[in-house]
UniProtKB/TrEMBL annotation:
Name of the protein: 4-hydroxy-tetrahydrodipicolinate reductase
InterPro entries, per the entry: DapB_C (IPR022663), DapB_N (IPR000846), DapB_N_CS (IPR022664), DHDPR_bac (IPR023940), NAD(P)-bd_dom_sf (IPR036291)
Cleavable signal peptide: none
Catalyzed reactions per annotation: (S)-2,3,4,5-tetrahydrodipicolinate + NAD(+) + H2O = (2S,4S)-4-hydroxy-2,3,4,5-tetrahydrodipicolinate + NADH + H(+); (S)-2,3,4,5-tetrahydrodipicolinate + NADP(+) + H2O = (2S,4S)-4-hydroxy-2,3,4,5-tetrahydrodipicolinate + NADPH + H(+)
Organism of provenance: Leucobacter massiliensis
UniProt cross-references to HAMAP family, sorted A to Z: DapB
Summary of subunit composition and partner proteins: Homotetramer.
Main location: cytoplasm
Keyword Cell membrane: no
Keyword entries, A-Z: Amino-acid biosynthesis, Cytoplasm, Diaminopimelate biosynthesis, Lysine biosynthesis, NAD, NADP, Oxidoreductase
Gene name per UniProt: dapB
Active-site annotation: 132, 136
Length: 243
C-alpha cells in the first residue's frame, strides 16, 4: 500500500521536483499540492508532509503537521539552531513525531560538507563562499550554515583564524567561520570551502548545474520518513555518511 504525501510549496522549482519524485515512486501517492493560497488544513490527511515553501511560512507549516501526527520532511531554508531547538521541543512533546530537516538534497553537496568537516580538523584558516540564483531569498544558505556548524563541531572548540571579521566585507560569521554569499544570474547553486595552511590552500567545491541533482536525495528522505522518530538534521544523517 502506498504512503500518501502532501507537498507544501508545490509550485516552486524544488516543489515541482518533489512532486515528480513522489509521483514516480511506486511506494508513494501524491494527494495534495499546497501553495500559499491553500488553507491550513489542506493536505491534513497525508501520511507525510514535505515542506519546501518559504522560510517565513515553514515553522507554522511544520508545527501544524506535527500536531496532526504527520511525518515531516523540511527542505525549506532558514532553519537556524534556534528554530531547530524549538521544533525539537515540540517533537519531544508529541509521541511518535518524526521530522527530517534537509538543508540540501544533493548527494554531492552532502559529501562535500562531510569532506569539509574532516579537513577542518587540520586547518585553522577557513572560509566559505556560497552562490545561488537571484531568487533565493535567504543568505547565508542553509547548506553553508550546516557546513560551518559541522566544521566548528569537528574542531571541538578550537577557534578559526578570521582576521578583521568585524568588517562587513569579510562576510558573516557562522559558528565562528566567515561565510560569503553571492546571488547571481546564471547560477543554480555553488559552494566553496577554502582552507589555508602554511604554503598551501585546499579548496572543496561543489557545483549544482540543475535541480536534477536533488532527485536522489529527495527519494532517500521520502523512504526514510515513515520510520522517522524524533529530529534528524541533514541528508548525511539519513544516508549514514560520516556516521
Amino acid at each position: 500500500m502506498s504512503v500518501s504525501v502532501a507537498v507544501a510549496g508545490a509550485t516552486g522549482r524544488l516543489g515541482r521536483l518533489v512532486c515528480e519524485v513522489v509521483e514516480e515512486h511506486p511506494g508513494f501517492e501524491l494527494v495534495a499540492r499546497l501553495t500559499s493560497a491553500s488553507g491550513p488544513e489542506e493536505g491534513a490527511g497525508a501520511g507525510i508532509l514535505v515542506d519546501v515553501s518559504h522560510p517565513d511560512a515553514s515553522p507554522g507549516i511544520v508545527e501544524r503537521a506535527i500536531g496532526r501526527g504527520q511525518k515531516v520532511i523540511v527542505g525549506t531554508s532558514g532553519w537556524s539552531a534556534d528554530r531547530l531547538a524549538r521544533i525539537e521541543q515540540r517533537i519531544a512533546a508529541t509521541p511518535g513525531a518524526g521530522v527530517i530537516v534537509v538543508p540540501n538534497f544533493s548527494l554531492g553537496s552532502v559529501l562535500g560538507t562531510a569532506l569539509a568537516a574532516l579537513a577542518a580538523r587540520y586547518f585553522d584558516a577557513i572560509e566559505v563562499i556560497e552562490a545561488h540564483h537571484p531568487g533565493k531569498v535567504d543568505s547565508p544558505s542553509g547548506t553553508a550554515v550546516r557546513t560551518a556548524e559541522l566544521m566548528a563541531e569537528a574542531r571541538a572548540g578550537r577557534p578559526v583564524e578570521a582576521p578583521f571579521a568585524e568588517q562587513p566585507a569579510r562576510g558573516e560569521l557562522v559558528a565562528g567561520i566567515p561565510v560569503h554569499s553571492l546571488r547571481l544570474a546564471g547560477v543554480v547553486a555553488k559552494q566553496e570551502v577554502r582552507f589555508g595552511g602554511a604554503g598551501e590552500v585546499l579548496t572543496i567545491t561543489h557545483d549544482t548545474h540543475s535541480n536534477e541533482a536533488y532527485r536522489a536525495g529527495i527519494r532517500a528522505a521520502l523512504e526514510a520518513a515513515e520510520a522517522q522518530r524524533g529530529l534528524t538534521v541533514g541528508l548525511d544523517r539519513v544516508l549514514g555518511i560520516g556516521a
